[in-house]
Design goal:
Layout lengths: L1 H28 L22 H11 L17 H8 L9 H4 L2 H9 L1 H5 L15 H14 L6 H9 L16 H8 L9 H4 L2 H9 L1 H4 L12 H15 L3 H33 L1
Length: about 280
């Protein structure tokens, strides 16, 4: 009976710490922020459907001086290294952007890149080209028509992240040198190999969706990934940075079972020994 009272006292104080003190401390050190917004409700609704053929003409006229469209066999005349040295990063290939980025985000971005991504003024390479909302809708329709809708998690991560970040654990490096991208962005973007461990899934889910919300003043722009695409990015970063997670989690049940059996045996041993004493 005495042991049960001691156990009850321990449970009370552990519970008080876990459900009382710890949440309060967590709230002070990591205040709650609004959840990730994959509708990008701060952006006005724009046309995202239109004439794909007209959009193709507009892309040819407005975009291919800086962007490649490998799906259509369109490549830049300069090498990626020269492009990165010129712009700071390699502008994205447009083949699959409509598969991973929100279409309304894309339509807004085409019209006003700097405001849409929440970049620091003068720190974003793509200028405002004066494209109308209607023409932006045609471009999104065209990009959607050529996009591969079945990209793997690794492909999405490379499309979305590797223009600025390295993933050295996979042997993946951005084209831009550290010196050039630091000149462009103000700091060298971190390697993503272990970011899942250093930041955690919960933080990344909010940060990727809107970096300024969690790290005000950061040079990282808002990229506009869809909910599914962002989940695939985090899934891949977890696979790279914590490849033994599933194995470790499955082993946990065996370890807990072992301790449960050991607890029962220890209690039975204690009862038998105390019978001898009393």
């Amino acid at each position: 009976m005495r042991e049960l009272k001691i156990l009850a006292v321990l449970i009370f104080f552990v519970g008080l710490t876990y459900w009382g003190v710890e949440p309060y401390a967590h709230q002070i050190m990591h205040p709650e922020v609004s959840p990730a917004d994959f509708t990008f409700k701060d952006l006005p609704k724009q046309p995202t459907t239109g004439d794909a053929a007209k959009g193709k003409e507009l892309v040819a006229a407005q975009c291919i001086s800086c962007h490649s469209v490998s799906k259509e066999g369109i490549k830049l005349a300069m090498s990626d290294a020269d492009v990165a040295n010129t712009y700071g990063v390699v502008p994205p290939d447009l083949s699959n952007v409509a598969a991973i980025y929100d279409h309304n985000f894309l339509a807004n971005f085409i019209q006003n890149p700097e405001a849409t991504v929440k970049a620091k003024p003068g720190k974003y390479a793509m200028p405002n080209l004066g494209i109308s909302a209607e023409d932006a809708g045609h471009i999104v329709a065209y990009l959607s028509s050529i996009a591969n809708k079945n990209l793997t998690a690794k492909q999405i991560t490379e499309e979305a992240c590797v223009r600025c970040h390295n993933i050295k654990y996979e042997g993946i490096s951005r084209v831009a040198t550290d010196a050039r991208i630091k000149e462009y962005m103000g700091s060298v973007p971190p390697d993503l190999s272990q970011v899942i461990k250093s930041k955690g899934e919960h933080y990344l889910n909010g940060f990727i969706n809107d970096p300024q919300k969690l790290l005000h003043g950061t040079a990282m722009p808002r990229v506009g990934l869809t909910k599914d695409a962002q989940a695939k990015v985090i899934e891949h970063l977890e696979k790279v940075g914590d490849p033994k997670k599933d194995e470790r989690n499955s082993l946990a049940f065996w370890i807990l079972g072992y301790f449960a059996i050991l607890t029962v045996l220890t209690y039975l041993w204690k009862v038998s020994k105390f019978k001898e004493v009393h």
